Amino acid sequence: MNEELKVPTMAEYMAEGKQPEILFWVGSAGSYDDRAKKITKAFVKILNKANVDFAVLGTEESNTGDLAKRAGNEFLFQMQAMMNIEVLNAYEIKRIVTCDPHSFNCIKNEYPSLGGNYDVVHHTQYIKELISSGRLTLEGKTYKGKRITFHDPCYLGRANNEYNAPRDVLKETNANLVEMKRHKSTALCCGAGGAQMFKEPEKGNMDINILRTQDALETKPDIIATGCPYCNTMMSDGVKFNEKEDSIKVLDVAELIANS
Amino acid sequence: MEFIPNILFAIILILGIGYFTRNVRKLIRNIKLGKAVDTSDNKKERWKNMMRIALGQSKMVTRPIAGMLHVVVYIGFIIINIEVLEIIIDGLFGTHRIGLKVLPESVYGFLIGSFEILAVLVIVAVIAFWLRRNVIKLKRFLSAEMKGWPKNDGNIILYFEVVLMCLFLVMNATDTPFQDMGHGNVISQFIAPWFEGISETALHTIERTAWWLHIIGILVFLNYLYFSKHLHIILAFPNTYYGSVEPKGKFNNLEAVTNEVKLMMDPNADPFAAAPEGAEDEVPEKFGASDVMDLNQIQLLNAYTCTECGRCTSACPANLTGKKLSPRKIMMDTRDRLEEVGKNIDANKGEFKDDGKQLLGDYITHEELWACTTCNACVEECPVSINPLSIIVDMRRYLVMEQSAAPMELNNMMTNIENNGAPWPYNQMDRLNWVKEE
Question: Under an 8 A CB cutoff, do B373 and A62 touch?
Answer without folding.
Answer: no
